[in-house]
Design goal:
Distance between the termini: 62 Å
Order of helices and strands: HHHHHHHHHHHHHHHHHHHHHHH
Structural class: mainly alpha
Shape: flat
Number of helices: 23
Length: 469
């Protein structure tokens, strides 16, 4: 392995070799080599070389599962780019932002994902990488899907498909349009959904003459099954859902197939079969959640390793503040009498404030939805009203929750529901997930928001102390 002592030609050869490895899809696992290249080009390279080296290091961290380090390194790589220079490698800069978007997508942070994808698209156009630019534009629809904006999803996918057609990529156009079919069905645009189904089966290259899809693309069986249910061809829908369940090993596909079969029997009004497939879907969801939890723990460990050295360096600063803290404690002791006398008033005011949040119109509506039978779920406006209520009553709430780390939409919704005293089991029903998933999120939020370990109930206690009282 070459270190920083290698000459320029050797180091550039090593960098190009790692770039080829990355393009081929081979895992990047040699972080020592990547770090040595960054060290060399930081001292001896131009702006493009520094950017390329840091990008390769970021890709290596990503392959090693160290997502926080990967994201920070991508940011450093982007900062190296001289966008005012005529020879700036805009195509590489586009891929850096696209990789950052991929991490935000995995963490369910759609707004941050959109920022990165828009930059990736912008720089791809500047770098004359037309296909990359269209791909980055099309992927923005995934973020809007997380934000529950189906009209934006359809608009972006249709526009991206037209752009693919203009450059002769009819296969990508058909593949892109297929992802709008569910949204079109929800909008009752049956004719357009039918057209896109035909385009996918004839032009995508993913469906053979017998209607079988390529391995890895089996989710199409679910999409077409939902289409058949919408036009009341229940038997055809059942056939596709059973085909997906029978042929796919992927957990998400099996969950989709069971969900589809549950919808079939709901249409046939067969309660025993509804219960059967709802139960199977629940068990598969639980398995998928367990797998996700294992992956989250691995990422958490990687994050801990990365941040541990920061903790050690900050420890000395904390020790230097001990004298000041002692003085502050003495001052607090002087104020203790005033606090004691004001405690009763404080308790009463807090109780009135909590009662107002707990009995607001939107809180009562969410609680009603959570306890409905059959189950009903909040729409986008319901979540918007809940956020508006809490953030109006507690202007500092969003800032407090995101002070130490940016929360995902799911995590922030859990914080909002906890503050208005919606029960954990009700939260699980509103979010269509298992109660253990909500409990684990609440427990992790205690550490993420308040910086300490503890139980999910302790998180509820902590968050109840935030308010205007």
């Amino acid at each position: 392995m070459l270190g920083c002592s290698g000459n320029g030609a050797q180091m550039r050869q090593q960098l190009e070799a790692l770039e080829q490895q990355n393009v081929s899809g081979e895992p990047m696992l040699n972080d020592s080599l990547a770090e040595s290249l960054v060290e060399y080009f930081d001292k001896h390279g131009d702006a493009n070389e520094r950017m390329r080296a840091k990008y390769i290091l970021g890709r290596t961290y990503y392959c090693l599962g160290e997502l926080p380090r990967a994201l920070e390194t991508y940011y450093e790589a982007a900062d190296c780019a001289d966008t005012t220079s005529s020879d700036c490698n805009f195509a590489k800069l586009s891929r850096i932002h696209a990789q950052s978007a991929l991490i935000f997508h995995a963490q369910i942070q759609p707004r941050s994902e959109l920022v990165e994808l828009r930059l990736a698209e912008q720089y791809a156009w500047k770098g004359k990488d037309t296909i990359q630019a269209i791909e980055c534009y099309a992927q923005q629809a995934n973020a809007y899907d997380f934000l529950h904006k189906p009209d934006s999803v359809i608009y972006i996918k249709e526009r991206a498909a037209r752009q693919f057609q203009e450059v002769g990529r009819n296969d990508r156009a058909a593949q892109t349009l297929s992802t709008t079919i569910i949204s079109l069905l929800e909008n009752n645009e049956i004719e357009k959904a039918t057209k896109y189904l035909v385009l996918y089966e004839t032009l995508s290259g993913n469906v053979d003459r017998n209607g079988n899809v390529k391995t890895g693309k089996e989710i199409y069986y679910y999409v077409k099954g939902i289409f058949f249910l919408t036009i009341n061809k229940v038997d055809s829908a059942e056939y596709l859902f059973r085909k997906e369940l029978r042929e796919c090993k992927n957990l998400n596909n099996k969950i989709a197939a069971c969900t589809g079969l549950k919808k079939v029997y709901e249409q046939r009004k067969d309660p025993d079969s509804i219960a059967k497939y709802a139960s199977i879907a629940y068990e598969l969801n639980d398995s998928a959640y367990s797998l996700s939890e294992m992956q989250n723990m691995q990422q958490l460990q990687a994050s801990y390793n990365y941040n541990h050295h920061k903790y050690l360096s900050e420890k000395r600063k904390l020790e230097a503040q001990v004298a000041w803290l002692l003085f502050a404690l003495a001052l607090l002791a002087l104020l203790l009498i005033e606090i004691i006398f004001g405690k009763k008033y404080h308790v009463l005011k807090k109780a009135a404030f909590d009662y107002r949040l707990k009995n607001a119109n939107i809180t009562r509506r969410l609680r009603s939805l959570a306890n409905s039978n059959p189950p009903q779920y909040p729409d986008y406006n319901d979540w918007k009203k809940l956020r508006s209520l809490v953030e109006k009553e507690i202007p500092s709430f969003y800032e407090t929750m995101n002070k130490n780390a940016t929360l995902t939409d799911m995590e922030y919704d859990i914080c909002l529901m906890t503050r208005v005293q919606i029960l954990p089991n009700e939260m699980a029903r509103l979010k269509n997930c298992v109660p253990s998933y909500v409990s684990n999120i609440r427990k992790s939020l205690l550490k993420k928001v308040f910086g300490r370990e503890g139980s999910a109930d302790e998180f509820g206690i902590e968050i109840s102390n935030i308010g205007n009282f």
